[in-house]
Amino acid sequence: MAAALLGMAHVLLSMLSEFKPMTTEQIKTKRLAALKLSKGAAGFVFLVGCLALAGWAFDIQALIRVLPGLSPINPMTACSFVLCGISLWCLQSHAKSVQWAGYVGRATALLVVLVGFLKLGECLFAWGIHIDQLFFQSKVAEEMTRGLGLMSPNTALNFFFCGLGLMLLDKKTGQNRWASQTLVMIPLLLAWIGLIGYLYNPKIISGPRVYPPMALHTALAFIGLTFGILLARPERGVVAILTGDGAGGIIARRLLPIAVLVPSLLGGFRIMNQRVSLFGSDLGVSLMVMICIVISTGIIYGVAASLNRTGSEHKRMETGLRDSEKRFRSIWQNSGDGMRLTDGEGIIIEVNPAFCRLVGMSSEDLVGRPMSVLYYQGDNPEQHLQKYRDRFKNGQIEATLEQRIRFRSGKLLDLACTNSFIELEEGKPLLLVVFRDISERKRAETASRESEERFRALSASSPMGVYQTDIQGRCLYTNAQWLRITDQSFEESLGDGWMQALHPEDHEKVVSEWNDCIQQKRQFISEFRLQTSKGVVRWVRSRAATIIAHGEIVGYVGTTEDITERKQAEEQMKRFAADLEKGNGELKEALANVRTLRGLLPICSGCKKIRDDTGYWNQIEFFIRDHSDAKFSHGMCPECSRQYFPDFVKEGEFG
Questions:
Q1: What pLDDT is attached to residue 599?
Q2: Is the alpha carbon torsion for 31, 32, 37, 38 positive or negative?
Q3: How far, CA to CA in Å, does 347 sit from each of 170, 402, 446?
Q4: Strand pairing of 552-562 and 338-342?
Q5: pLDDT in tens, 563-613
Q6: Which helix (H) or strand (E) segment is 75 a member of?
Q7: Burial, 186: exposed, middle or buried (Cβ in 10 Å; 0-12, 13-18, 19+)?
Q8: Whole-angstrom Cα distance, residue 321 to residue 246?
Q9: How far apart are CA 84 and CA 88, in angstroms?
Q10: Residue 373: is its pLDDT beyond 60?
Q11: Measured between alpha carbons, how far is 89 from 102 in angstroms, rounded to an integer?
């Protein structure tokens, strides 16, 4: 006996040895498991009722009374269990999205309440309804001859309270308790009493009685039904405490099985001793007392040891929380970004120094006051406050946003805001907003945007083609003049599409020069030909320079000038120069062949003969003929004609 007591104490201590708090994920897992058990309980109760009805229909005694000699289950009891199973399944949280499920669940629960109420009225007030004899009347009458077959009063009472519990599953009482969990405690106790009775004395139906006892499978079904109702909403009431991570939940999970099982086992031990007379009455009572002392001592010791460990863990947690608080406070005080903590009504709970510097107000002027005190009076601060309240209530506050705010101090700032909710277990959620001043960035963006707009305007009106590329040389933008020169669409020119406009003979050279410039990160200058899709060839001069941002090359911008006319003029000038050069050569050759007369020529003043180098006098025409390439043709002037041939020359013929 001592060994048995020590073994029991060891088991109890092992049950109480671990009181570790559960994580949030473990709590969710336990509650999901509770929901699954509730669904399983609904199926179990429904199955018990169906099998019992099948037993009555096909006269299967194992389904009617489980074991020979035990009390049978009444057909109306079986039908009520079927209704309870349907009701519990339809009222599960997963079925709430189906509109008709709630109506079916409450309607079947109402039928169960009506069955219990009518049977209780028959037992208490002798109503002649006999609702438990509506089905299988002849078979029930046969059982009644042995004092069995009817629904017992405690079964009727259980159905009445279970039906009410199902109907009021989501209703609270005046003391803020869940009505269903309170109601089903009575059926649970009555069913447990019936089950213990069968465990202590299987022949419980022996002896005369007015009403038969609760059937064994009826008691089991009620235990399953009550647990299913309790577990249907595991986040509420008793079940929430049992599945929670608090000290009460931890102790309850450890002690409740002991509180239920140990007295039941001791009672069975006491009854067994009376039957077999192992010990006398006094000794039996003494053993019961000793066992209770040992068990109580073991429970107290286990709880004390576990609470000591829990206290140590709590101290470590408190130390960790204090350290965490110090770190948080250091971050809060020294952060360069402004931080503000507000509740759902827009009341400022706390601000950090950076926020005070940002808005130009002290923490004493802000904490405990509505956030409308921040805004400039001319901007309707109350409207800002109401807008905040509506968004907080509806959960429409954006995680991140940028906005321009004019504060009461007159400062106008562009701010980037990061919003996050802080969930507090003991209170309502708060909103933490982190403010970062982005005014400089906004001004830079505005300047960049204006510069971009100016660039677009200049490129649109430029007489030359303008293009822009990224650092890899892929085209990002081309203006209208560039598109006119290449005869491409804007989409066709983007990326590497501009290369399709290169003349086939210049394609390889231009692409190679362009890639070399990209790799060496230098400017690009080249003259080449373009050929449109219609076969028109144009000469262009292209020049591209690097775009530098924050000290790094981010792309290229360039111009393309149509130099076709200049190229044509250059070709014409080349041809003219060649022709001129050719003419000059011919002239030089002609001049080289020209013979010239130089120096003093002796000429006769009378006959006009010229003396040559040898001393002979020659006619002037012969001398010139011999000393130059000139040739003479002979004629007669008018004076000589009139002098020598007066008869042949008419007066006035030569004017």
A1: 62
A2: positive
A3: 34, 22, 35
A4: unpaired
A5: 888 888 888 888 888 888 887 777 676 556 555 556 667 777 777 777 777
A6: helix 75-90
A7: middle
A8: 17
A9: 6
A10: yes
A11: 10
> Which pTM does this prediction carry?
0.49
CB 392 within 8 A of CB 344: yes
Determine the Cα–Cα distance for residues 272 and 648; give it in Å rounded to an integer.
190
- Give the pLDDT band of residue 163 (cuts 50, 70, 90): very high
Contact 340, 435 (CB under 8 A): yes
Q: From the centroid of its chain, how far is CA 359?
A: 32
Spatial CB neighbours of 81, under 8 Å, sequence gap ≥ 6: 45, 46, 48, 49, 52, 221, 225
Reference 50, options 80, 2, 82, 3; nearest CA is: 82
- The string of pLDDT tens digits covering residues 609-646 is 777 777 777 777 777 777 666 666 666 777 777 776 67
From start to end of 501-604, where are the E strands? 524-531, 537-549, 552-562
What tokens does 327 get? Answer: 């770190």
CA distance 544 to 556: 6
Residue bearing tokens 């009347």: 137
Sign of the four-CA dihedral 322, 327, 331, 334: positive
SS3 279: coil
